[in-house]
Design a protein that fits this description.
The structure is a homodimer. By secondary structure, the first copy, chain A, is mainly alpha-helical. In chain A, 67% of the residues lie in helices and 8% in strands. At the A-B interface, helix 1, helix 2, helix 5 and helix 6 of A face helix 1, helix 2, helix 5 and helix 6 of B. The first copy, chain A, binds a DNA duplex through helix 4.
DNA sequence: TATTGTTATACTCTATAACTATA
DNA sequence: TATAGTTATAGAGTATAACAATA
């Protein structure tokens, strides 16, 4: 009896566009993750990127990554172990631990970003100037939409 | 001594565009995942979506999801347990197990897709017709690029 | 022998609960 | 007391290695 069900694609109007945009973005994101990263796990990359903006406490990191403090404590411990992140005591509040990027950590982050960008760039080189302009305009729109 | 390093954004030219596109797509993808999904884990959703296209063997599923057969075996076992996927023996080759979507699985998949699309659509409603056209054109370009 | 799928075992990233130190 | 961080323990999801069944 159970021969399996097939489901078609839905939609019309804005919902249809939402569907297409979402799928395209997820596909790009997935491919970039799969094919350009090796030595640096996604959650580690993410933490290094946060610390590249500015030093933060463990709780701040946990909140902006939306994971629990114990989980972040582990992730940070691994990054300290490899020498990419430095721990420091807060001079004013003895409970706080300030995490910051080391020179080595910054180098790893830059290298990883470059690797991801190169992978993407290789695929954009075949596009016409007009197509590139469309992509550039679209990214601006998406950024604005996501900032809402 | 270690006061932490700050890293700026890189680039120019196609690399710059690649960087922007990649970041925009990852941000959209991340937000959609965070804010629209609950009952269905990402890897489960992914498998249901594969089976919605057509029934597949375990090995095929493992390959297109790029995980090991034992891992896929587990994931599938959970989906069979909930009644969203059906197992069947291949009539021609006794070694094969054919996995397919059940009616319930199809319903869950449709509901999840709708939920993700609605979340995205809510954010696109404020855009002008021209901005929407730009996004539509951009998704076509990205689809073509990713298909390379 | 080669292939498909499962079981055994382990590692990583996540969580909650309990603990320590500081405010 | 309340807060920041760590340690203890457990639950997913991943992997490799070894095994059973079929070609």
């Amino acid at each position: 009896m159970e021969e399996g069900v097939t489901v078609g694609e839905p939609g019309s109007d804005v919902v249809r566009l939402a569907h297409d945009v979402r799928l395209a973005c997820m596909r790009v994101s997935r491919r970039v993750r799969f094919e350009s990263s090796e030595e640096l796990a996604p959650h580690q990359f993410s933490v290094l990127a946060r610390l590249a903006v500015r030093a933060r406490t463990l709780k701040e990191l946990a909140e902006c990554e939306r994971i629990s403090p114990p989980s972040m404590s582990r992730t940070v411990a691994a990054l300290v172990e490899t020498g990419w992140v430095a721990r420091a005591d807060d001079p004013d509040d003895g409970r706080l631990v300030v995490l910051s990027l080391t020179e080595e950590g910054a180098a790893v982050l830059v290298a990883e970003r470059a690797k991801r960008d190169v992978w993407m760039a290789e695929r954009l080189e075949s596009l016409s100037p007009q197509e590139r302009a469309t992509l550039a305009a679209a990214t601006d729109i998406l950024e604005a939409v996501m900032a809402q």
